[in-house]
């Protein structure tokens, strides 16, 4: 009998997250012919995202749609997933390496008595083995890992594997009958969202990031304009956040978000190891810094030595004309 692959999909504000389509593709890369893929979608009022998911693969979308799951809470989501997995009995579970995925994955791994490989950036087959690559030592090295039998749980770093393409025929959508957890120990009363731009930083194709060199909150304006022209998101170093130039929600690095965009533009960022931990896997890195000795130039594919307040408006002007 074939294996069962479960992809835990995420929706936010009625939209499927891009990483969920990448997780579907990850399952397709790891599976063999005859294995089954089921996408499990949790939340409330999910018909839009469920249809989006179903259009991308042949298999089953198990929808757990319940008012209790409107806002993420580990207890309710774990209860719902555990109930689904009691029936599904997955051999491999794929989560996005998101705040939700990072929270749920170890709990599910423990419940399934499964091994876990986190922050996977590539998947390849070698004979009968599936190798999962993940960065270690803040991106200075990679390790390739395998599951030695038994169940497995992986979390997939966004923007590393292409999203699943539209399928020739859609997956079947099945509603899962969730029994609400009777003895919750916590509840979400209110969610207060900080304004962090229209595009999710961790899923953006282009990130324009500012450091202490930006010098003030107003100094982020030219970066926001460039990001808008490139349909990207704005990020920041901890230096810029600590100085109060922007929200901590924008922080990229070891103690911030990890991003892997196609283009990362570092503006007035020196390139401390803790910052590199969050962006060094970006496909193309462009650094703008007035100090030619700044360490960021060691990891940059393209470097511009100059004043960011002169360089960025010129770039914005050029890109506007393209
Ligand atoms: P600086 O190092 O001060 O660099 C500013 C740069 O701007 C300089 O290179 C300067 O030449 C350039 N500049 C100035 N003016 C201009 C101009 N007009 N035009 C162009 N360039 C200009 N940092 C993170 O970013 N993310 C993390 O997650 C993180 N986690 C940390 C965790 C720990 C435990 C510790 C100890 C530190 C952490 N840090 C983190 C902090 C990190 O060590 C650095 O202090 C921080 O990244 C520096 O930010 P910066 O590059 O913006 O500032």
Automatic annotation (TrEMBL):
* UniProt-listed PROSITE patterns: ETF_ALPHA
Q: Which residues hold FAD?
A: 212, 237-238, 251-255, 268-275, 289
Domain Electron transfer flavoprotein alpha/beta-subunit N-terminal residues, every copy: 5-188
- GO BP annotations listed: fatty acid beta-oxidation using acyl-CoA dehydrogenase
User: Gene3D superfamilies annotated for this entry?
Assistant: HUPs, TPP-binding domain
* Top-rank taxon: Bacteria
Q: Which InterPro entries match?
A: DHS-like_NAD/FAD-binding_dom, ETF_a/b_N, ETF_a/FixB, ETF_alpha_N, ETF_asu_C, ETF_asu_C_CS, Rossmann-like_a/b/a_fold
Statement: the UniProt record of this protein carries the keyword Electron transport: yes
Q: Give the organism's phylogenetic lineage.
A: Bacteria, Bacillati, Bacillota, Bacilli, Bacillales
Q: What is this protein called?
A: Electron transfer flavoprotein alpha subunit apoprotein
Q: Which SMART domains match?
A: ETF
* Gene Ontology molecular function: any one: electron transfer activity
Q: Could you list the residue ranges that cross the membrane?
A: none
Q: What span is annotated as the signal peptide, if there is one?
A: none
Presence of keyword Cell wall biogenesis/degradation: no
Cofactor(s) needed by this chain: FAD
Q: Which protein family is named in the record?
A: Belongs to the ETF alpha-subunit/FixB family.
Tell me the cofactor note. Answer: Binds 1 FAD per dimer.
Pfam families for the chain: ETF, ETF_alpha
Q: Which UniProt keywords apply?
A: Electron transport, FAD, Flavoprotein, Transport
């Amino acid at each position: 009998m074939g294996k069962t692959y479960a992809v835990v999909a995420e929706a936010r504000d009625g939209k499927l997250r891009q990483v969920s389509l990448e997780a579907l593709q990850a399952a397709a890369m790891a599976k063999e012919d005859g294995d089954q893929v089921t996408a499990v979608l949790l939340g409330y009022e999910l018909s839009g995202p469920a249809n989006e998911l179903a259009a991308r693969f042949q298999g089953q979308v198990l929808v757990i749609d319940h008012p209790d799951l409107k806002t993420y809470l580990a207890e309710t989501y774990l209860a719902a997933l555990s109930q689904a997995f009691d029936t599904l009995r997955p051999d491999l579970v794929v989560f996005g390496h998101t705040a939700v995925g990072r929270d749920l994955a170890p709990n599910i791994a423990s419940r399934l008595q499964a091994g876990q490989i986190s922050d996977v950036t590539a998947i390849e087959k070698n004979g009968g083995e599936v190798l999962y690559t993940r960065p270690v030592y803040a991106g200075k090295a990679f390790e390739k890992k395998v599951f030695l039998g038994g169940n497995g749980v992986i979390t997939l770093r966004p923007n590393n594997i292409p999203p699943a393409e539209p399928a020739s025929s859609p997956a079947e959508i099945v509603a899962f009958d969730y029994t609400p957890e009777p003895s919750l120990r916590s509840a979400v009363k209110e969610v207060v969202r900080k304004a962090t731009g229209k595009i999710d930083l961790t899923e953006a194709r282009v990130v324009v990031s500012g450091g202490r060199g930006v010098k003030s909150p107003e100094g982020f304006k030219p970066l926001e304009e460039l990001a808008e022209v490139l349909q990207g998101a704005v990020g920041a170093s901890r230096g810029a956040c600590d100085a109060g130039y922007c929200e901590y929600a924008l922080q990229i690095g070891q103690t911030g978000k990890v991003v892997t965009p196609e283009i990362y533009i570092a503006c007035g960022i020196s390139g401390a190891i803790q910052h590199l931990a969050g962006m060094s896997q970006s496909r193309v890195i462009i650094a703008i810094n007035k100090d030619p000795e700044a360490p960021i130039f060691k990891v940059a594919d393209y470097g511009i030595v100059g004043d960011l307040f002169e360089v960025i408006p010129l770039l914005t002007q050029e890109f506007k004309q393209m």
